[in-house]
Specification:
The complex is a heterodimer of chains A (138) and B (80).
Chain A: E1 13-19, H1 22-32, H2 37-40, H3 42-47, H4 57-71, E2 77-86, E3 95-106, E4 111-120, E5 125-135
Antiparallel strand pairs in A: 1-3, 2-5, 3-4, 4-5
Chain B: H1 4-16, H2 37-51, H3 57-61, H4 66-79
Helix pairs in contact in B: 1-2
Classes of the chains: A alpha+beta (138), B mainly alpha (80).
């Protein structure tokens, strides 16, 4: 998307679906250096009471970066801040629904705020976020 | 009823994460720790949401300190 500032309005909504594989989770562990066994060791995850390795919260939250950088507002986005609450674990192969809605616009500094959430296909809320986005286009 | 200065102090404490911050009319970006450009955007948007008012960039560029901000807020609230 390539929204201009004047195209944005309160209530504007965008969403998309995504899915992380076990390979994606392994790649994130390698990139971030977070090798906590809950995320990378299936036997440990099951022993800890989970059906499998839990996808990193910060990996699922990278979808908020895609949301603002590609869709809402898209090209002219500059991510300035984000508050995230993690609600439920998700697992490799889960289909994730990402949705964001513009809830505040400030003309003075061209700043928008987005309420966003990630849910699994069967309903549970994975996380919710308040995202503060600068706008550097026209 | 809290004064605008007291309400701004509460907003500044929350946004700047400084629970003991004391704000005066003379406070400005040089005298308040961590009041940088991004914090300024966060402060202004928090003030807009709190009072349900909108600022123009030109209005904000003329402000020298918190006292000027209070005066501008009073004008905006009177015009609502």
């Amino acid at each position: 998307m390539e929204y201009g500032w004047g195209d944005l309005h309160i209530g504007l909504i965008h969403g998309f679906d995504a899915c992380f594989s076990a390979q994606d989770v392994g790649a994130f562990a390698a990139l971030s250096g977070d090798t906590n066994p809950l995320h990378v060791d299936p036997a440990y995850a099951v022993k800890s009471g989970y059906p499998g390795p839990v996808v990193f919260g910060m990996l699922t939250s990278s979808l908020y970066s895609r949301l603002v950088g590609v869709y809402l507002p898209g090209k002219f986005a500059l991510l300035q801040g984000i508050d995230i609450d993690f609600k439920s674990p998700c697992y490799a192969g889960d289909l994730l629904h990402v949705t964001g809605e513009v809830v505040f616009l400030s003309d003075a500094f061209r700043r928008l705020e987005i309420k966003a959430s990630i849910r699994t296909d069967d309903g549970p809320l994975v996380s919710k976020a308040t995202i503060r986005v600068g706008f550097h286009g026209n | 009823m809290a004064s605008i200065l007291e309400e701004l102090q509460s907003i500044f404490r929350d946004v700047l994460d400084q629970p003991d911050l004391i704000l005066t009319r003379e406070s400005n970006a040089s005298s308040v720790d961590d009041w940088d450009s991004l914090a300024h955007i966060n402060l202004v948007t928090s003030i807009e949401k709190h009072y349900k008012i909108k600022f123009a960039l030109g209005e904000l560029q003329e402000l020298k300190n918190v006292g000027d901000m209070i005066d501008l807020i009073e004008v905006k609230l009177a015009a609502k």
